[in-house]
Amino acid sequence: MLDFKHTDRTRREFESLSLDHLDALYSAGLRLTKNERDAEDLVQDTFLRAFRFFDKFERGTNMKAWLFKILTNTFINKYRRRVKERTVVEGAAREAGNERFVTHEPTESSADPEQYFFDKLLSDDVIRSIDQLPIDFRLVVILADLQEFSYKEIAEILDCPVGTVMSRLYRGRKLLQKNLLGFAVESGVVQGKQALELSAQTDVEAEVLEFKRRA
Amino acid sequence: MARACRQLEETFLHAYVDGEFSPKESAEVKAHLDGCADCAQEARLHQSYKAAMLRTQASAPNALNALVREQLAEEAAQGRWARALRDPRGIAVAAAAVGAAAWFLAGGLSHPLIGRGHSLVEDGVALHARALPLDYTASDATSAQQWLSGRLDFGVHLPRFARGPEGAGPRGPRLEGVRLSNLHERPAAMVTYTIPSADGRRVSLLIVDDPEQRLPGAARRIADRDVWMSRARGFNVASWRNDEVVYSLISDLDEEDVLALVESAEMR
Questions:
Q1: Which element (helix H / strand E) includes B240?
Q2: A16-57: per-residue pLDDT in tens?
Q3: Nearest-CB residue to B44 (from A97, A115, A148)
Q4: Which of A12, A202, B100, B255 places its Cα 20 to 30 Å from the Cα of B28?
Q5: Are B256 and B238 in contact (CB under 8 A)?
Q6: May I ask the CATH architecture of the domain A102-215?
Q7: By C-alpha distance, which of B176, B175, B168, B170 is closest to B197?
Q8: How many whole angstroms separate alpha carbon A111 and alpha carbon B4?
């Protein structure tokens, strides 16, 4: 039957539950697709799909996790290929676009390099380090460290065991920190000597190779 | 990692900082950290890493919220018909409701009301009609073109409109700004102008990179260009190609005025 009132009520309910998560979905979409236009497309697709399957959503359960499950599935199915094709042209545009995320200026090196290393980083360098991660690591790092989902929620979003989430998260973070160290030296935020001391802590190349071999 | 301390694994400390433990477990870890400088240092390092990650959060562009709402409204409207057609009783009710049973059933499930039956230009007209907010406001073509060139993967030339002779149609469209969009999964730009000499009426220029597209309407030769004129939803549309990119001028101006505008448009 045509039930126009019902449809409008459903849409209003959906909007009130979902639109609060727009910024979070966009922010994650931006780090998945690495460019603003694809991120907007991905977010729009996510909302449309979620609305189509809204009758499958169990009221009272975790809406944010449900939306992120749709976001990651949509990205994996549809955007990965497109993003790969575009990586050649995106570089220059992104350089300009990311300036507004820079929140910290390089500061004098402190007496305790470890404790303050992450505090004085340029957000731009952090973003580049996230973007360099292979997709499996990038997904868990985005969900855990940008969105602060619990290990269990991430396991549900990605349909994998909690143990897999933990090992990917650990290796992803180590790899990211290693990339970050390189960028931080490049942009002069840390000195070469400090970098050497720190790199001893973030030496994960062997682990990553091992992970890839087993995957 | 704290090499001196073999009691707590690094992954364990991370899980603690990530808030994965129960209050009781957390209290036990904290008791250890109070007495172990190495582990405490490791936990602080992980905290500062997490803070640095959170600082990279971006917020969605303002226009995105409105766009998502628009699309949901559209989807809800289309969904009514799709649902009605899935349910045979619904078809009868729907058909009776619009009083066009034969017309509707002849269309069957491939009826244009379902799915993407619309042409690119029709969808462009729908965008124009909605007057969605601009992503970038600019009054000069050079800066608008520069802004677009960093955001589209095809080359765009914003036309320069020459000032026509007195009394010959609308003169000097004023650039208001641009908006990025997507039509049929293709990136597109909508450039908005107003025409002061025509009570500030709004004109949109839709720019899509679509070499395969068949342009709608009838072709004419204007100022060394093939221009296709068509009408959709009460708007006049003039489309032409420049370097394999399709430009469509959409407005409710008279056909004569639209042609005058197209004629004065210089593509650099």
A1: strand B235-242
A2: 999 999 999 999 999 999 999 999 999 999 999 999 999 889
A3: A115
A4: A202
A5: no
A6: Orthogonal Bundle (1.10)
A7: B170
A8: 21
- A-chain residues within 8 Å CB-CB of B11? 166, 170
The set of residues, in sequence order, having a beta carbon less than 8 Å from that of A195 and lying 6+ positions away, is A181, A184, A185
Which of the following CATH numbers is that of domain A1-100: 1.10.1740.10, 2.60.40.10, 3.30.1360.110, 3.40.50.620?
Answer: 1.10.1740.10
Name the residue facing B60 among A26, A104, A170 (closest C-beta).
A26
Dist. CA A208–CA A167, nearest whole Å: 11
Do A201 and B54 count as a contact with CB atoms less than 8 A apart?
no
CB-based contact, B26 to chain A, within 8 Å: no
* Separation in Å, CA A75 to CA A38, A81, A189, B87, B227: 10, 9, 34, 32, 39
Q: Which domains does chain B have, with CATH numbers?
A: 10-54 (no CATH), 62-110 (no CATH), 120-266 (3.30.200.100)
Across the interface, whether the CB atoms of B150 and A14 are under 8 A apart is answered no
Mutate to test the interface with B, among A79, A118, A207 (most CBs of B within 10 A): A118
> What residues in B contact A117, CB-CB < 8 Å?
45, 48
Instruction: Return the pLDDT at B166.
Output: 45
CA distance A163 to A158: 12
Of the candidates A210, A203, A168, A167, the residue with the CA atom closest to the CA atom of residue A182: A203
* ipTM of predicted assembly, 2 dp: 0.76
Tokens of A137: 């690591």
pTM of the model: 0.54
